[in-house]
Amino acid sequence: MREPEFTPSSAVRPRSFVFVESPWRQYLLAFLTFVAASMLNLLLLERWLGYQAIALVYLLSVVVVSLFIGRGPILLGTLLTAAGWNYFFAPPRFAFNIYDTYDNMMLATYFVVTLTVGHLTTHLRAERLAEQEREERASALYQLTRDLADAANLDDIFCRVVRQVEIFFEAQVALLLPGRHLADGLTPYTASTWAPKENEASVAALALAQNQPTGSGTETFPEAEGMYWPLGVGGVPAGVMALRFKTRVALTRSQRNLLENFVRQIALILDRQRLRDVESKHKFLAESERLGRTLLNSVSHELRTPIAAIASAASGLQVAPGLAPAQINLVAEIEAANNRLNRVVQSLLSAARLQSGQLRPKLDWCEVSDLVQVALRSDEGVTGERPVQVRIAPGLPLIKMDFVLMEQVLVNLLLNAVVHTPPGTAIEINARREGGQFILEVADSGPGLPPDQLERVFDLFHRAPNSKRGGTGLGLAIVKGFVEAQGGRVQAANRPSGGAIFTIQLPVADAPELPAEIL
Fold first, then answer.
1. Of 62, 94, 477, 502, which has the fewest Cβ atoms less than 10 A away?
2. Cα-atom radius of gyration of the chain, to the nearest Å?
3. Closest among 368, 446, 469, 463 to 410, alpha carbons compared
4. How do residues 178-211 score in pLDDT, each as one tens digit?
5. Are 123 and 49 in a shared domain?
6. How far is CA 293 from the centre of its chain?
7. What is the pLDDT of residues 408-448, one digit of tens each?
8. Contacts of 110 (CB under 8 A, 6+ apart)
9. pLDDT at 277 over 70
10. Which stretches of 357-441 are DSSP H helices?
């Protein structure tokens, strides 16, 4: 069975009586009740009742009318009925003097009973109205929460918010959302039923900045056309909800509390939706990254077997007798391309190790000159005839590092210098100690790096604009990852004389004492 639809009118309609809101109407009702009861008493006095029973009719009229009016009008009705009974009915008639002790006691009792019954009735009515208001607020919040819980996305939430607030508060609603930049200001959402004028933009911006309601009905810019509530709970508001009421009557405390609860509930739901979107995005990125690592690792390992086969076949062709010069050149090109492909696969494997967190450097004491010589020998096919100047400071101690990782770091920096500099330009390798740091520099004499790319050159798969084709954007990222895994850091800069320079810094520990025969 379908749940009955909730409407605000069914929540605010009283069930048994209607309380008169206007004060002057309450006093008028008390006076008219006195007039009607007096006319009835005149009729009853002439035909059926005595003057003493007339007081009970007045008492009944005051008790009945107290169901609809407040304490002040009840007091007025008590005074009028008591004076009317004394003047019109109690002997001597048409005078305010009462000589009978019994009548005086009856008049005093009448006052006490009437005021007591009126006070109790007013108190019960106030409690009932307060309970009814709490029920209305709870029903309204339940309806809002239930409606927003069914929303599919953020746009659906905004549409439902506009509809619910417009129904419950009988006001035109505008959702003002901040742009991507601070200069864009607040922009009304497309589902809004009201667009604030330009002169009220500062009022809405103030509500967003101070996270406090502003505009009509508040202490800040009360002359504004609309009331502006920031949609935030403790943090940065997601926007501002603006209301333009159809009447200029000030909100009662109950209505303002309900509106504040509405705003708080909407802000909580928006915050929950934002966290849900962020979680979904992070989950998607994590899955994409995991899939990419798996694919990268799988492809890299699958390529190593054919690369090894190509290298073996090329080596066999080189020693084969009777090759023509053209065939020898083809074999050399095959070996060069195979070496390049092997370096790409090695870079992919290194990137996969860095992303998966499986890189565990094996630190040991190493000679810097040995590191440079091994790197230059493994890189002869790339540097070719380029002059490489090596400057190693004398007396440089042993450095604790992972020799294999640092070899690949140095090879990648040399390859980067070869790719991005004109043929024949020199490459410099400098090694020294500065305080507690080991400094290894690789510099070139090329065009240098774009100033806005100095921080991004170490990003994975990043290639600088106008760079030569053929790179993968992995070399410098691997350099940074390998160096930082050993507790160091690497920086890129441009030389004053031209060209780029990459500086590696590793911490220097106290080298062990070598045996005399080794020395």
1. 94
2. 45
3. 368
4. 864 444 578 888 888 888 888 888 888 888 888 8
5. yes
6. 29
7. 889 888 888 888 888 888 899 999 998 889 999 999 888 88
8. 55, 58, 59, 82, 85
9. yes
10. 368-378, 380-383, 403-419
Q: In which band, very low, low, confident or very high, does the pLDDT at 392 lie, cut at 50, 70 and 90?
A: very high
Highest mean pLDDT among 300-309, 348-357, 404-413: 404-413
pTM equals 0.47
Q: Which of 251, 285, 317 is the last residue of a domain?
A: 251
Task: Find all residues with CB under 8 Å of 438, minimum gap 6, and list them.
Answer: 368, 396, 399, 431, 432, 505, 506, 507, 508
Please indicate, yes or no, if residue 462 is contained in any of the structural domains: yes
Question: Where is pLDDT greater, at 462 or 495?
Answer: 495
**Ranges 397-401, 420-424, 450-454, most confident:** 397-401
Helix, coil or strand: residue 245: strand
Judge whether 499 and 446 are in contact, CB under 8 Å.
yes
Q: Which residues, other chains included, contact 250 with Cβ-Cβ below 8 Å and sequence gap of 6+?
A: 217
Beta bridge partners of residue 174, listed in sequence order: 242
Higher pLDDT, 162 or 12: 162
For residue 314, give its domain range. 307-356
Residues 199 and 234 in one domain: yes
Task: Please indicate, yes or no, whether residues 398 and 435 belong to a single structural domain of this protein.
Answer: yes
Q: Report the C-alpha gap between 188 and 175 in whole angstroms.
A: 5
Which pLDDT value is given to residue 461?
Answer: 66
Question: Of the residues 206, 224, 251, which one is the last residue of a structural domain?
Answer: 251
- Residue positions counted in the chain: 519
Output the six-digit token pair for 317.
Answer: 């062709």
Residue 89 and residue 45 in contact, taking contact as beta carbons nearer than 8 Å = yes
Q: Residue 381 pLDDT more than 70?
A: no
Same domain, 315 and 337: yes
Higher pLDDT, 94 or 131: 131
Q: Where are the beta strands (DSSP E) in 231-289?
A: 240-245
- Domains contained in the chain, number: 4
**474: helix, strand or coil:** coil
Domain assignment of residue 300, yes or no:
no
Place of tokens 């129904």: 167
Q: Verify that 375 and 480 share a domain, yes or no.
A: yes
Q: Which of 96, 106, 84, 101 is nearest to 34 (CA)?
A: 84
Q: With respect to residue 257, please indicate whether it lies within any of the assigned structural domains.
A: no
Question: What's the whole-number mean pLDDT along residues 272-277?
Answer: 81
CATH of the domain at 401: 3.30.565.10
Confidence class of residue 300 from pLDDT cuts 50, 70 and 90?
Answer: low
Q: Is residue 112 part of a domain?
A: yes
Asked if residues 65 and 80 have their Cβ atoms less than 8 Å apart, the reply is: no
Give the integer Cα–Cα distance in Å for 399 and 508: 6
Q: Classify residue 251 as left (phi > 0), alpha (psi -120 to 50) or beta.
A: beta
Q: What is the pLDDT of residue 2?
A: 36
Instruction: Enumerate residues 6+ apart whose C-beta is below 8 A from 391.
Output: 428, 429, 430, 431
